[in-house]
Structure formats: structure tokens, C-alpha cells
């Protein structure tokens, strides 16, 4: 927002200049507000389309289910077989795969002259079969079967031909050859009748749907149908729609269904809404989507607050110019103090510079934030003393690519985008006077005079310390979970590590006992003693190596820096802790590591990942007659690939889908926490890698992909300004 001075010709008075600035600020603010509202409306259109797709996909599920049921009839040469129909229903797991549905049924189309014959045929199959209620009409629509039959016994034999809503939908489906959904109705399939819909899919005496309406009615066999409870369906839809939306569906003139993920109260501020037509099941439903625009209200309120602050600054500046032009020095001091009070009262750091970057204003909030006094900086220093030089270099490189021109580190880094876009907002690390660092969000804008000449820059900085502390707390919780999982893993490893140490201790004990026995009997020889002591020394070093590996694995690596480490050393240190267990369990271990395969990582964390995979593999193949585990590492383009494969035949898809979820485990109680794989995935991703289960592999195979070592120029050279 430009700050203007009265031109020397006095063509514009300070009052007119101030009015013009206020009008300009109002115009800009209004346009920004319009853009914000438009963007929110566009977002609502996207959300409405998502809701339409969710509803359509949900109903397609029922259509696919009915088509499968129809396929059972078609496959049996257009003969309805209750046993095969039941087998199909059981295979589809109705209540889990089709929530809201009371089941799948078959309704027979019977003409009046064939009713008695049809009744006798059904009684031969089911002696208790009867048609109810009795109707004397030209054609009947009789429920012949419905699954699960245990919950729908009373529906068997029901003739719904005189039930207007249901029969109308059934006839429409028969005539059109398409799946049709009824209007809202009360379902007789439940003991306590509940509102819902019925989906009909026509079945003809031919596998192919007849071409004309007359042919379709003459060859009509019946319908596969599915009654759907409205309340249950709405609960499922409510779980799927995006949070914060209120949705209503108008199925006909008299029916409107409401469900939402946000309770919108009457009179909520700035409630946005949108309507769209949704063709579904032979009908057109009108979907209404609305939201309580809290985000929009917050954005507009924030914009309005900035506008008010800007107007206050303009008014104060205009008044200051007015007094300056009139030469009223005493009043000028008073009004200058008033203007300073406005800036001094600001909660955020506010400072201004000349075009050359020298600071000309530094408010108390800036003094409090950065530890400098205004008199130390005003007219003497530039804001460059606040910045981290490396961040300035990095930002200049980003801007050079963004603006497609060379931006040198320094003052140009801060003003290049301001001069082209009017302002620039970024996060920086500021240095306080005592060299403590503080994270800030800084907005820089240009200041112009009445002749549109640049007279300086205005910076407003917000302290992000509390926000960063919150993020740090979240990261600490993640680290605690990582440590907890590591301790749990150590607990699982305790028995195995004891065996790792007990075996060499037994060797030491054996050699020591033989030496004592020979020395007591006088049969010892120097060469034999040296040999046995050498073996004891080797075994002791082996124990020390295991203890060292255990100590390294159990230490807190949270604050470790990433270093270049060879993959072979990571694998070796991990095997020190579990190699003996594999030998004892007769597990063949194969390790294939490519030449010079190294990564930039925290070795202890990657060792934890490998330990998790090896422990899981050992447990999984313990019961197999032939047991082996294979570890491979190689470079593929710009990635380092590490694979852990065991002789198992893979993981069931139902388990594989969930195994990366925290606390999911298939192990017995007290044998696993369910955190191993989820934390391993998090560790690898924190190294800019991927952690995946290879579902296509014949054997159980996990793949770790990490970036190959590439040192950037910034990492090789010290950043200086």
C-alpha cells in the first residue's frame, strides 16, 4: 500500500491524497475479498462433485450386487435356484459389502391365468408357500425368495403388485431394461417397518435384454431386487462425505434426506450452498451441498483487519503530511507521536527501510523480538543483520528459478518479488542481538509516494516460536514412540541375545576347564595352552562385539546427524545381534551387497528397520522345514535398494493391507506391539526413502529404497554474504 506525500506543485492536497489512498486500498481489499469468495465457491463446486460421486458409487455397489445375482439365474438357463442364489449371497457377505441392504431377493412376474400353476409348483418345493395378500389383477409380482431368508421369512410369497410405489418402479425397470430405484417408501421386509428404497433389476427369459418394450414385457421372468434401509445408508454416506459439509438429497417433490459431517446452526455466518442434478436408478435426484464458511469468514475478517490497519496508517500519514506542509511544528510532533503510537501498539514486529535498505523505523515489538534498540539500527544498519546467510543464498536460488533471472544473495533477495508482485511473504530464521535464533513469518511490501516513486519498504514479522514448539512437541512424541518400539524390540530380542552370548561363554568355559584339568594333571603343553588362550581371546572379542552392537542399537539416536555409512556395516552390526539365533534355528542366511553401496543416514535407525524385518522373518518361517533368509543391496539409477526376502510364501492380502497401521499385529499377546512395521516405514520415509511390501514376489519380500549419495553445492561450501 503506497504512502504518498503532497507534490511540490500542491496540485493534490494531503486530504485528497489520503482520500485517494483510502479509495485505492478499499478497491484492492474489495477485489481480494471477491477473489476469496470465488475461490471458496469453486472449492464448494469441487466438494459437490465429490459428494455426487460418493452417492453414485454407493448405489453402483448395489447395482453390481444385483447384476451378480442375475448372473446366477442366467447361468442356470433362466431357472431360479434358491440354493445357488443363497450360495451367491453368502459369498458376497451381504451386510459387510452392502451396508443398508436388507438382502437380495427374486420376485416372479406371474400373469393371472398362471397363478394357480405357479402356486402348486412352489408348494411342491415349499409346502408352506402362500401368496399374500390375495389380489385379482391381470398380473402379479410375487417375492419368491430373499436372502438372508432367516431375516425375511414373512416376505416370501408377498405380492406387491398393488403396492403403488414398489410396483411402479418394478414395471419401469421391466419396460426400460435398466436398474430402477423406487421412491421413498416403508419396507415390509423388516418387522418394524422402516423407510427406504427398493432397487429393481429386470430378469428376462433370454440372456440378452430384448430390444423393444413390448418384447421385454412379453419375455419378463421377474426381478432381482434389493430393499435398502434409508437410515443405514445415510450413516454410511455420512462417514464418507468430506468433513464440514451438510448434504440434502431431494428424491421427489415430497421427500428430502439430510445428512452431514457438521452441525450447521440456523443463522451461521456466511453459509454457502450449491445444488446439482444426479441421475440415479432411472430418476433424477437433486443434491444440495452447503457448508458453514468458517474458513471464509476468518479470511475475510483477517483481510478486513489488515484493511483497517492500513486505513489507520494512511489517515495518520495524511494527517502528518498535512501538518508538515502547513509548518505547524508543534502539532506535527503531536501527530507524529500519535502515528508512532499506532505502530508502537502493533503486536508484530514492524520496521521500514529506505530504498537502499537502511532501516528508518523500528517499533517496540521489533525491539522486544530481536533485542536491538531502535537507536542502534535506525539510519545505520540494514535488516541483513537479522538473516541466516545460508537461507538468503537458498532463497536467491529459488527466486532465480521462479523469476527466470539471476538474483544475487543480499538486498535483491528480499525486494525482487516485491517489485514485481507488490509483496513477498516467507518464513525466515532471524538472529537476535545475542545470536539466539527465532523463526518468523515476514511480509515485505513496497512504499511509493504520490509520483509513484519508490521511497522504501515495510516489513511486518510474526514470531513463530510457539508454533515451532508445538511442531517440536509432536516430533518428540514421535521420537518417544520410536524409542518405545525399540525397547519393545529389545525385549523381544532378549532371549536371542542371551543365546548369542551364552554360546561363546560356553566355548570359553570349555577351554578354561580343559586348561585347568591339564595343568592339574601336569599334562599341559605351551603350544596347546597358547592355542586355547587364543580361542578364548577370539571368543571374548566376539562377546564384546555383540555387547557393542547391543549398546549401539539401544542408545537414543534421536539427535544423531545423518552421515555417510556403508550398507554392509549396517547389515553386519544388525547380524551381530541375531546371527547366532539363525544358526541355532538352522536358518540359512545369504547376504549380497554391491560394491561401494553407501547411504546418507542414521545407521542406528536403519539397523532398527533391518532388525524388525529379520525378527519378523525368523518368527514367520520357524515352522517351515527348509528355512532361509536373503539380504540384498544394490544401486539402481539414483536409488539404493535394500531387500529382505525369506522362504515364506508371502503375506495374506487381508493382513498386508493393515500391517503398516500402528498397533496392528498378528503375533500372540506380549510377543509384539504392532509398531515395528509402521515405525520402520516412518524411519525410512524420514530418510527420503520408501518402505514397501512386494506383493508380486513369490516369497515374502520387503523393499527399502533410499536416495543415492549426492552432495549439493550448498553442503560443500560455507554460505556467506
Walk me through what this model shows.
The protein has 721 residues and is an alpha+beta fold. Helices cover 48% and strands 22% of the residues. Strand 4 (185-187) and strand 5 form a beta hairpin. The protein is flat. The model is unreliable at 1-11, 262-270 and 711-721 (pLDDT under 50).
Residues in helix, % = 40-55%
Radius of gyration: 39 Å
Task: Please state the second-level CATH architecture of the largest domain.
Answer: 2-Layer Sandwich
Question: What is the CATH superfamily label of the largest domain?
Answer: Histidine kinase-like ATPase, C-terminal domain
Unreliable stretches (pLDDT < 50, length at least 5) are 1-11, 262-270, 711-721
Task: Tell me the name of the CATH class of the largest domain.
Answer: Alpha Beta
CATH fold annotation of the largest domain: Heat Shock Protein 90
Strand content: 15-25%
Q: How many structural units, i.e. domains?
A: 3
Distance between the termini: 30 Å
Mean of all residue-level pLDDT scores: 79
Given helix and strand content, the structural type is: alpha+beta
Q: Note the total helix count.
A: 20
Q: What is the count of β-strands?
A: 22
Q: Which word captures the global form?
A: flat
Largest sheet: 6 strands, antiparallel
What does this entry show, briefly?
With 721 residues, the chain is α+β, with helices and mostly antiparallel strands. It is built from 20 helices and 22 strands.
Amino acid at each position: 500500500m503506497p504512502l504518498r506525500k503532497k507534490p511540490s506543485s500542491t496540485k493534490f492536497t494531503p486530504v485528497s491524497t489520503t482520500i485517494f489512498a483510502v479509495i485505492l486500498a478499499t478497491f484492492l481489499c474489495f477485489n481480494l475479498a471477491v477473489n476469496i469468495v470465488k475461490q471458496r465457491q469453486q472449492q464448494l463446486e469441487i466438494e459437490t462433485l465429490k459428494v455426487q460421486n460418493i452417492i453414485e458409487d454407493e448405489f453402483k455397489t448395489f447395482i453390481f450386487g444385483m447384476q451378480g445375482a442375475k448372473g446366477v439365474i442366467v447361468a442356470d438357463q433362466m431357472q431360479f435356484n434358491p440354493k445357488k442364489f443363497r450360495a451367491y449371497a453368502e459369498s458376497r457377505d451381504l451386510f459387510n459389502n452392502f451396508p443398508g441392504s436388507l438382502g437380495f431377493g427374486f420376485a416372479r412376474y406371474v400373469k393371472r391365468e398362471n397363478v394357480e400353476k405357479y402356486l402348486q409348483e412352489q408348494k411342491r418345493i415349499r409346502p408352506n408357500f402362500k401368496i399374500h395378500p390375495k389380489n385379482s389383477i391381470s398380473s402379479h409380482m410375487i417375492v419368491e425368495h430373499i436372502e438372508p431368508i432367516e431375516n425375511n421369512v414373512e416376505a416370501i410369497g408377498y405380492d406387491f403388485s398393488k403396492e403403488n410405489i414398489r410396483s411402479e418402479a418394478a414395471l419401469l425397470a421391466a419396460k426400460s431394461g435398466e436398474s430402477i430405484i423406487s421412491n421413498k417408501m416403508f419396507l415390509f421386509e423388516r418387522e418394524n417397518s422402516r423407510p427406504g428404497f427398493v432397487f429393481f433389476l429386470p430378469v428376462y427369459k433370454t440372456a440378452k435384454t430384448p430390444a423393444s418394450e413390448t418384447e421385454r414385457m412379453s419375455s419378463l421372468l421377474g426381478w432381482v431386487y434389493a430393499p435398502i434401509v434409508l437410515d443405514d445408508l445415510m450413516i454410511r454416506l455420512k462417514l464418507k462425505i468430506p468433513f464440514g459439509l451438510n448434504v440434502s438429497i431431494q428424491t421427489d417433490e415430497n421427500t428430502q434426506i439430510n445428512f452431514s459431517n457438521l452441525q450447521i446452526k440456523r443463522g451461521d455466518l456466511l453459509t454457502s450452498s450449491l445444488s446439482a442434478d444426479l441421475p440415479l436408478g432411472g430418476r433424477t435426484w437433486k443434491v444440495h451441498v452447503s457448508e458453514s464458511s468458517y474458513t471464509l469468514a476468518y479470511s475475510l475478517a483477517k483481510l478486513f483487519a489488515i484493511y483497517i490497519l492500513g486505513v489507520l496508517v494512511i489517515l495518520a500519514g495524511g494527517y502528518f503530511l498535512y501538518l508538515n506542509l502547513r509548518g505547524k511544528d508543534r502539532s506535527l510532533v503531536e501527530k507524529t507521536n500519535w502515528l508512532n503510537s499506532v505502530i508502537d501498539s502493533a503486536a508484530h514486529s514492524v520496521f521500514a527501510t529506505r530504498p537502499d535498505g537502511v532501516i528508518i523505523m523500528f517499533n517496540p515489538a521489533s525491539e522486544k523480538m530481536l533485542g536491538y534498540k531502535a537507536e542502534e539500527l535506525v539510519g545505520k544498519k540494514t535488516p541483513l543483520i537479522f538473516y541466516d546467510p545460508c537461507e538468503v543464498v537458498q532463497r536467491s536460488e529459488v527466486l532465480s528459478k521462479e523469476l527466470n533471472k539471476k538474483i544475487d544473495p543480499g538486498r535483491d533477495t528480499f525486494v525482487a518479488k516485491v517489485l514485481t508482485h507488490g509483496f513477498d511473504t516467507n518464513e525466515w530464521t532471524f538472529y537476535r542481538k545475542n545470536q539466539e535464533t527465532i523463526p518468523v513469518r515476514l511480509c515485505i511490501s513496497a512504499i511509493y509516494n504520490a509520483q509513484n516513486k519508490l521511497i522504501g519498504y515495510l516489513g511486518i514479522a510474526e514470531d513463530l516460536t510457539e508454533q515451532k514448539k508445538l511442531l517440536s512437541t509432536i516430533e518428540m512424541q514421535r521420537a518417544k514412540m520410536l524409542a518405545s518400539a525399540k525397547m519393545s524390540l529389545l525385549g523381544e530380542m532378549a532371549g536371542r541375545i542371551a543365546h548369542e552370548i551364552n554360546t561363546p561363554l560356553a566355548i570359553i568355559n570349555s577351554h578354561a576347564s580343559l586348561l585347568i584339568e591339564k595343568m592339574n594333571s601336569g599334562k599341559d603343553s605351551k603350544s596347546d595352552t597358547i592355542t586355547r588362550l587364543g580361542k578364548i581371546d577370539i571368543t571374548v572379542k566376539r562377546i564384546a562385539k555383540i555387547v557393542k552392537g547391543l549398546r549401539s542399537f539401544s542408545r537414543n539416536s534421536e539427535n544423531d546427524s545423518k552421515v555417510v555409512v556403508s550398507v554392509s556395516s549396517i547389515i553386519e552390526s544388525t547380524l551381530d545381534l541375531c546371527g547366532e539365533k539363525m544358526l541355532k534355528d538352522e536358518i540359512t542366511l545369504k547376504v549380497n551387497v554391491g560394491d561401494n553401496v553407501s547411504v546418507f543416514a542414521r545407521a542406528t535407525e536403519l539397523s532398527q528397520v533391518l532388525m524388525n524385518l529379520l525378527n519378523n522373518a525368523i518368527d514367520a518361517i520357524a515352522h517351515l522345514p527348509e528355512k532361509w533368509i536373503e539380504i540384498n543391496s544394490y544401486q539402481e539409477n539414483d536409488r539404493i535398494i535394500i531387500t529382505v526376502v525369506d522362504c515364506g510364501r508371502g503375506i495374506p492380502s487381508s493382513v498386508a493391507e493393515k500391517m503398516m497401521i500402528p498397533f496392528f499385529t498378528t503375533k500372540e499377546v506380549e510377543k509384539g506391539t504392532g509398531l515395528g512395521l509402521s515405525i520402520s516405514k516412518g524411519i525410512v520415509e524420514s530418510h527420503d526413502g520408501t518402505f514397501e511390501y512386494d506383493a508380486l514376489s513369490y516369497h515374502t519380500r520387503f523393499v527399502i529404497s533410499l536416495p543415492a549419495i549426492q552432495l549439493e553445492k550448498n553442503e560443500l561450501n560455507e554460505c556467506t554474504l
